[in-house]
Design goal:
The chain is α/β, with parallel strands linked by helices. It has a four-stranded parallel beta sheet with strand order 3-2-1-4, with helices on both faces. The mean pLDDT is 93.
Length: 128
């Protein structure tokens, strides 16, 4: 059972999806599973998700008919097995230490929830 289940709803984001998934792969914290919920995306997102799932078994792909963001998150929750759950939008990306810091704080303080906000400074790459 992983420490953190990351739920990533995916719909029509092929332009941003690799950046998102790479930011998960590049985490310093390694005890995670990424549940990528393909919410009936009409673009090439499904192929990208399959590529990552083949590359790393921690990526789990759930495919469903389009039902919207909340429905996709709920579908991800149904298969999540982590001690903690993290939501990540598929057009976003996270700092390489995001999970390490969040997990460490939760463990240190005995917290059920760790909350953080958008960082306007961290920009390892810009999309063209």
């Amino acid at each position: 059972m992983p420490a953190i289940s990351i739920i990533i709803p995916v719909y029509n984001v092929e332009k941003y999806l690799r950046r998102c998934l790479d930011s998960v792969l590049n985490q310093t914290f390694q005890d995670w599973q990424a549940i990528c919920v393909n919410d009936g995306s009409p673009d090439n997102s499904a192929e990208i998700l399959d590529e990552y799932a083949k590359r790393d078994k921690r990526f789990v792909v759930v495919t469903k008919e389009n039902g919207g963001l909340s429905d996709a998150r709920n579908a991800g929750m149904a298969v999540a097995t982590g001690d903690y759950v993290m939501y990540l939008d598929s057009d976003d990306f996270i700092h390489p230490q995001t999970m390490e810091i969040a997990y460490s704080l939760a463990q240190r303080d005995g917290s059920d929830i760790v909350s953080f906000t958008y960082d306007r400074i961290y920009r390892p790459q810009l999309l063209v």
